[in-house]
UniProtKB/TrEMBL annotation:
Protein's recorded name: Proline--tRNA ligase
GO molecular function, one term: proline-tRNA ligase activity
Organism of derivation: Candidatus Giovannonibacteria bacterium GW2011_GWB1_47_6b
Keyword Aminoacyl-tRNA synthetase applies: yes
EC annotation from Swiss-Prot or TrEMBL: 6.1.1.15
Domain of life: Bacteria
Amino acid sequence: MLQSKIFTKTLRDSPKDETSKNAQYLIRGGFVDKLMAGVYSYLPLGLRVLKRIENIIREEINAAGGQEIFMPAIHPIENYTTTGREAIDVLFHTETQTGHRIVLGQSHEEVIVPLVKKFIESYRDLPLAVYQIQTKFRNELRPKSGIFRGREFLMKDLYSFHADEDDFDRYYKTIQQVYKKIFDRAGIGSATVRTFASGGTFSKYSLEFQTITDAGEDTIFLCERCSVAVNDEVKDDCKNTCPECKKPLSHEPKKSIEVGNIFPLKTRFSDAFNLSYKDPDGKQKPVIMGCYGIGVTRLMGAIAEVHSDEHGIIWPESVAPFLVHILPLSKAAIPEAKRVELSLAEKSIPVLLDDREDKSAGEKFSDADLIGIPWRVVISDNTIKKEGIEVKKRSEREAKIMSVEEFLDQFL
Ligand code: ATP
Ligand code: MG
């Protein structure tokens, strides 16, 4: 893609109302635009990243047997009266022209349970795992830290349905592995820890996946032995010891952001909607449920936060908007740049080519650092003379002159 054709432009100054690094870089780099507090547009570069993150999630959940659907964003209030959640504070309320009260979806238990109830009859219909990647609406009191906490944000929400607790427990463990794979592939695996937290209405704890970053809102304490952590909110509850190995937790608090969580729901929602199945003996039994969320847009912010330096973002290759950023530094370098782009295109390597004629070399370099594409290729009169290209990884300092063939070999 030609950089001159992207309708957004990089911004020199940081937005004054954003304090987190991820928000500043994402806005300055032209990934997102803020419409109002907690409400963002995803621009060409940002949408490419978001779609790649979505696909990692989709591939891993599909591999674990999840079936993807897409549910409505507006819900009838009656479903929330049924579950007793009509008064929760984050619900946005509105109504139809004829006065039927509706709410905007902040989560989808109130939709998925009546939906699957139409199809689950006997034990043969279980287990079942259904998910979607969809916009959620929450009237958050304090949207902050850019796309970390939005009033409108993208979530992957998965719901599982089981005949008994044992089957649920198996799936609950499977999903922990699936989440690990997702966060590994998204490049934040080593910064993300499984964390015991409150909110387990039925079991003692719920499990959160917390990414360690100073920009986070949560505080956690690590158990260095088990690579798990405990959220500050339940630290006293577990007497400062690790719930898994019972050894003392680290004294050093870490700031973190919750990128995902998993919840045993038991029969909380099955009871409300009377979701049951016939067991092999013909007895009616309630369906056991679990729900599993990942904040997709928050995850994008967390990746940008973890993978950045004082100049901008350093996208992991797995989610980068493009793999290679080609910077021709003179008019004469443009045809050579286009030739290199073509060779990369033959290998299906996505390239952003900075063909902007009104930008100095310095401006192109600082924009490249800000946008954070993993590989930078500079083509100048000097590299043409040397019959090579100058290659630098965004994550490294040193640049190397090499032939186009040598560079292509990196992507075998
Ligand atoms: P939090 O404690 O951060 O408010 P939550 O417990 O309300 O999160 P869930 O309702 O379980 O979270 O949502 C699933 C996931 O969606 C969370 O783990 C988080 O990554 C993300 N998420 C929750 N609220 C927001 C928000 N306002 N903006 C962006 N992402 C969010
Ligand atoms: Mg919340």
